[in-house]
Every structure is written in C-alpha cells, then in structure tokens.
Amino acid sequence: MTILYDTQSLLERYLTKLVRNPTLLGTNLVTPVIFLVLFSQLLTKFGEFLPTTSGGYLAYLAPGVIILNAMISAPQGGVSMANDLNSGYLSKMLLTQVRRPAILLGRLVTDMIVAVAESVITIVIAVAMGVTFSSGVPGILLILLTVAFFEFALSGIFLTVGIRTRKTETISAISGLLFFPLIFISSAMFPISFFPSWAQTISNYNPVSYASDVTRELVSGGLDPGTLAAAYVLIGIIAAVTFAATWYQFRKVVS
Amino acid sequence: MGGVRGWATQEIISAENLVVVYQDGTRAVEDITFRIPEGEFFGFLGPNGAGKSTTIKVLTTLLKKTSGKVSIAGFDLDKSPGEIRKAVGVLSQETSLDVDLTGWENLHLQGRLQQMSGKALDDRVAELLKLVQLEDVAKKPAGRYSGGMRKRLDLASALIHRPKLLFLDEPTTGLDTQSRAAIWEYLEGLNRDEGITIFLTTQYLEEADRLCRKLSVIDRGKLIANGTPTELKESVGGDTISLTLKDASLRTKTKEALKAYPGVTNVVDADSGVVAYARNAGQIIAGIITTLDRAGIQPTFLSISSPTLDDVFLRQTGRRIRSDELSRRETEPFLT
Description:
The complex is a heterodimer.
Chain A: H1 3-20, H2 22-42, H3 56-73, H4 75-87, H5 89-94, H6 100-129, H7 136-165, H8 168-184, H9 197-205, H10 207-220, H11 225-254
Helix pairs in contact in A: 1-6, 2-3, 2-6, 3-6, 3-7, 3-10, 4-6, 4-7, 4-8, 6-7, 7-8, 7-10, 7-11, 10-11
Chain B: E1 11-21, E2 27-37, E3 41-45, H1 52-59, E4 67-72, E5 75-76, H2 81-87, E6 88-91, H3 103-113, H4 118-131, H5 147-159, E7 165-169, H6 177-194, E8 197-202, H7 205-211, E9 214-219, E10 222-227, H8 229-235, E11 239-244, H9 251-260, E12 264-270, E13 273-278, H10 281-294, E14 301-305, H11 309-317, H12 323-328, E15 332-333
Parallel strand pairs in B: 3-8, 3-9, 6-7, 7-8
Antiparallel strand pairs in B: 1-2, 1-4, 4-5, 9-10, 11-13, 11-14, 12-13, 14-15
Helix pairs in contact in B: 3-4, 3-5, 4-5
C-alpha cells in the first residue's frame, strides 16, 4: 500500500460527494456559461474595435471564460477541509493509518479534476457557438493543463484559510472579494489596451491575464513560447507560496 | 517499529503520571496513573469536563500530552503512534460519518484508510453491517440514518481493522434508551466473545455499573477512586439514607444527630439536605426518624437506597455527577 492508494481512496470519496451534490457543480457552471453567452451577445459590436484578427468578441472572450473555471473551483477544497474539521471527520481520518499528505493530495486532485471537467463543458459550448480552437486537441490539452495548474495555485489560498479559520463563510467572503477584481482587471474579459493606465498596470501583474493570454494564443493558434513560460513561472511561484502556507497549516492540525 | 508486540505484555494500557495542560493554561488531566490488563472492560466515570475526553484523545494519538509516560498495546506513545493506531479502534463522542456516502461506502472507505483492500475488506464490511444490523439500509446515505443507526455505523467503522483495543468516548450520550441498550449489547459481546479490551468513558452511572468490570472515577483531571463497581459501592459504607430538609439551618444539627446514631458510618451534605450511610439502614430507619423527631427535625423527604456509584462520587467530592441522575434512582420514599 502506498500514498497513491490513500490518495485514490480519498479522491473517490470527494468525487462521490460531488456527484451526489450535483447542484454544486451546476452552480459552478452558471457563471462561465452566463459570461460566455451573455457578454458575447451584448457586446457583439465591441468585436469591431478589437485588434484580434478573426472570430470577433466571442473568440476573444472564450479563453478568458475558460480560465474562470479555475477561479470558481479553487475555494471548494478549503470549504471541504473546514467542514471535515468541524464535523470531526478529519479527526476520524487522523485516527486511521492513512498517510497524512494523501488527505491534502486527494482534495487538490479532486478540485483540479472539477476545474478541468467544467472547462471541457465550457469549451464544448464555445465550439457550439462557433469558436475555432486552432491548435486542435494538443492545444486543448495544454489549455486544460493550464486551468488545472492555475486552479491548484489558487486553491492553496482557500485551503490555508479553511484549515486555519474552519469557517466556510470566511472562504466565501474572500473568494467573493478576489473574484471580480481579478477577473475584470485582467485581459480575461477585455483587452488591456482599452483600460486606463492604472488598470493596465494591475493587469500586467495579474496572473489571470497570464493564464488567459496563454489560452487565447492557443485558441487562435499562435502560441508564443514566451507567453507560456511567463505564465507558468508566475503560476508556479504562486503555487509554491500557497502550497507552502497550506502545508504549514495542515501540519499544525495533523501533528 | 518500536517496542514489543502487544500480546507479549499483559497490560494493554499503561499510563504513568499523565499530565495534560492546554495552551490556555487549563489543566485538563492532573498526574494520573493507571494500568489496564488485556481483555478488561474498563471505564472512566465522571461528570462533564472531568478530563475523560482529553485522556482518550491523548491515548489515541490525537492530542499531545504535556508529560508522563504512556504505553498502548506495548508501544510507546511518543515513539510509535503509527503502531498504536493500527492496534486501536476509536469511537469519538461526536458521531463522525460522511453523510453523503452510504453506510457501505463509509465502512469501505474506513477500511481502505486502514490499509485494507479486496475481498478481505468486502467480507469485513459485510460482517460488520450484519453485526450492527444495518444490512437493510447499507445502500442508503448515512445522512438519512437515525441517531442510533449512525452510532452503530460509527462503531462498526471503529472495528473495521479488527483492533484489539477499543476506545469509546461517551458512546451512548444523546441516544434513546433502546439505542443505548443495543450499543451495550454489542460492547458486551465484543469484550466477551472476541476478547477486545474496552476503555470507555461515561457520565452515566447505570452504564458504568452495568458494563465495566473495573472503574476509575475521575473529577477535575484527577482519579479519585478505583475498583470494581461493587467494591466502589461497598466503600461508601452501607446503604444510603437521603434526607431533604425544609430549613437549611437545621443541616448541622441533623448531621450531628445522625453521626451520633449507632450504625451510621458517614454523613455528608447533598443538595438540599444530607445523606447518611449505614449498614442495614432498613432496620435502623425507624429509630433514626424518632431520634430526629425528638430533636425537632422533620425531613420533608426521606429515602433509603442501596449505594450507587453517584454516592461514591458524592463521598469523594461532595457533589453529584449529574443532578438529573438522582431523580432516576430507584428509591423507597419514606414520607414523614
């Protein structure tokens, strides 16, 4: 028996719980779908002002909305951890021989799977609406990897808060607080060139911009290795910091 | 691996000078020492906040002790917590199940976390579902179970890896009489038929009296009495004569009169009256009433009963474990 066995056992637990609560998955999908359908319809004319070559505003918007899935899935792990701490289930797990890191790993993998699954649905809707994914299947796979990696980096914020405060309300408040500025002051929804200079500055440091840009280049078919490298380095740094914080809080609970 | 294998030692639990002080300075457990031989049905009896749960959390590796030496199933608590987790099963006070998973899934997951797999695990799950009589609802989510069913499922999950030692923290608190009786029967069976050593904590006198062969009475982090339930009750010094007084100022006078009466072994304050202990109380009660009457003391309520474990607690601490237990005691009222 290895840590993989324990991680798989817990992954199955978390996924079963999600399948039994389909409302949660449905609610998570509402925002990306509404953004995709509503904004692309309302702002059709906006496409005429875009510097991008083809596909209009929908082609610009879709990659940003795909990245949205990473942000929406990220708080789930923290919520789940807070619930397990409060219900005593975490103590129950700690009384078994389960390898401690598996408790965290199982949760992290679950949320990455959810973010990827919801991105697949978003991609299917986008294709149905007429978006062309010029990089084909390899491009889509790299988009999904980017979503998973970004979700992982963000989830550490909520895991840290969830383990430390044990309050799901705090997690909701923080995710609500971060969501709109991160999404709108980035290149996800609109090109940065339309922003006032202060917002351009923020966007240039916003990881959502980096993840969106990679996805956008993959959709349009011209991925610049520099864009990819910049995004993965930045997300990697965020992931290292948030995972270290999560691990620190988790160690305090399990030891 | 550290220490010797559990079966090689006769004592399955040994705690020496165990002290637990919480970060806020609360002294939850104050220097307690006890040893429990293999196969024992042992209990900690005490009121809420006595240090029972804290002790269980330490013994089961969930909480760090401040000082002392603890060995469980032959393994040192500090050196081999992993080995201890293999050897023990724990039923926590708060029932902890995954309410989204079915009864079967809860047990199966617990088995996997205990490093079981395949047919051996499937068979064990089926066996336990049968034992706790949840076969019919095994495919329903645990969230739809009643309180008693949840407790039974939780008990089954504590047993999944065939522990030789089972810790139960107030296993029947909050359960109805019927569910409580069912849990009692399972526990008696596990101890008798499978030789599982049981360590339980309880605040219920009846539970301690019926189940435990050996008891420690615990209060404010200290062990105040040890022995079999019978030994403990005999230590009280005879039957219990409880008197309720209308006028509290008569308390001292009443106590003096009772103490002087031949056959009375001890007199203590209790709630709104006094409690006297006497051998063969039934034979001397008429004389006691006459004596009190002459002294101008007329109790509003008087009863005789065999001593209970509550009397053990009362004698040691001057308090009852729970006042509502008192009203449930079987009494023979003597109205004056």
